[in-house]
Amino acid sequence: MEGFVEWFISQGGILDRTTMALQDIPNQGRGAIALKDLPEDHTLFSIPRILTLSTRTCDLPRLIGEETWKRSQLNKGWSGVILCMMWEESRGDNSKWSAYLRELPTTFDTPSFWSEDDLKELQGCALVDKLGKQEAENDYTAKIIPLLQARADLFDQSLLTTTYSLHNYHVMGSRLLSRSFQVEKWEGGDGDEGNTSAVMEAEKDESLIVAEPHSDGMVVDSNGETNHPEEDEDEENSDEEDDEDSSDVAMVPMADMLNARYESENAKLFHEATYLKMVTTKAIKAGEQIYNTYGDLPNSDLLRRYGHVDLVEIPDSNGMMGDPGDVVEVPADLISSVVGTDPEQLKERIEWWLDEGGDDVFVLDRSAPVPDVLVSFSKLLLLSEDDWGKAQSKGKPPKPKLDDVRTISLISEALRKRLGHYPTSLEDDEGLLKESGNCSLNLKNALVVRVGEKRILKAAIEHLSRVKLTLKSLEGPEGGSSGMKRKRVSNEGKQARKERR
User: Fold this and answer.
1) Angle at CA 100, nearest 5°, toward 99 and 105?
2) What does pTM read for this prediction?
3) Of 204, 206, 236, 291, nearest to 79 (Cα)?
4) Which InterPro entries does this UniProt record tie to the protein (predicted)?
5) CATH for 2-306, among 3.30.70.250, 3.30.530.20, 3.30.1360.40, 3.90.1410.10?
6) What is the spatial distance between Cα 457 and Cα 183, in angstroms, rounded to a whole number?
């Protein structure tokens, strides 16, 4: 790591070696450790914007030409920045990022690199459908290969099966997925972060320096806090990536050396006119690890993006270990499949729900065993034709109240069916997890993800069962609530007494 640190400083990076050191950390790879007690709001290191690696700072887009770059669709998604990374790697020591690229990982524990047998351990988990590996390969074939072949003057043809191979495309994409940041163009500058004179000129303008971080959390603007790209894009080339400005996606040397852990963040990266600064957000004791967390993600996303899972104590769980941020997804079509009605009869309702902005996937977590949108959608499917017509005319879905047994039974059945998507039971997985000392890392990580999701489903089913029992206990002999029955009897008694008078 010493060579990387020397390179970082030689390229204009600022690092106080008396406060922080990079080192190998058991089960976490490389990370940063505080060498002495650090106060809140202490700058750990600063990275010149021109040292970030993106389509703005790399010369390749300019050499290819803006028109060709856009015609090749390299301005959309991550294909362009991946190609820039491969090109810079091909240049060896002629690239100013060579020392940095040599330090980046070449192997990954993410499911995109798992064997087919290991992937079977994730059966039932929604993350399998989010890997995006095939989409990435389609982009490589459609966007990258034609340009590699057309511009032999830029791309060494002897490297087509190595540096420019599909495998290396996946490697670079995984580096981006796990380590990149969203670095927007600085407002007030000319936008050329690769232009040294422009950077030096910007340094003279004190008005561009931000004293306070932006308060919008993971959403970043050019005058505020920087963090990792949005957590819901799938892989190298997801639909969400097409919506973002791909030139904002950047590799940020030194900043990407910090690890992440659930609710352990003690440092954040902030924008300034010409530098990005990693600043402590709370006091850190000597010997403690410095974390820059990318949002408190569920283990399914941590595994998909970074190849690891979190095991921390879950609040109010009697010492249960897992990820408090775990979620499980329930597709809307799973709910409709258990209604017991001809799917064609429900099609109009489902399309109306989606047209009104309703979700087609419902997310359950520990804080909300049964989300309101799931309840509302389920009640919509069960409406009588008359009530369905009224809902349409009002433009409002049913209120999300768990106040009838039919809705509760429908959701319960759907969640049990969702639980059946996993080939093993929760009890089996918890037993395997206790004995996971001899398991492979992939199997252990898959077990952790499966157990977390199944616990949420089990908790939701148990919650619904309790609500159902409560409702049934209130039902009177005629099917109404006992409270309503008592009120009706009481009123009849009053009328009888009046008649006797």
Assistant:
1) 115
2) 0.81
3) 236
4) N-lys_methylase_SETD6, Rubisco_LSMT_subst-bd, Rubisco_LSMT_subst-bd_sf, SET_dom, SET_dom_sf, SETD3_SETD6_MTase
5) 3.90.1410.10
6) 38
Q: Do domains 2-306 and 327-484 have the same CATH topology?
A: no
Mention the CATH class of domain 327-484. alpha beta
Tell me what pLDDT residue 203 has.
37
Structure tokens given for 346: 């429900």
Q: pLDDT confidence of 472, banded at 50, 70, 90?
A: confident
Spatial separation of the C-alpha atoms in residues 283 and 261, rounded to whole Å? 17
State the virtual CA torsion across 98, 104, 106, 111 in degrees, nearest 10: -140
Considering the chain, what is the average pLDDT of its residues? 85
Model pLDDT, residue 345: 83
Q: Position 243: which residue type?
A: D
Q: Determine the pLDDT at residue 477.
A: 57
SS (HEC) of 288-329: CEEECCCCCCCHHHHHHHHCCCCCEECCCCCCCEECCCCEEE
Cβ within 8 Å of residue 167, ≥6 positions away: none
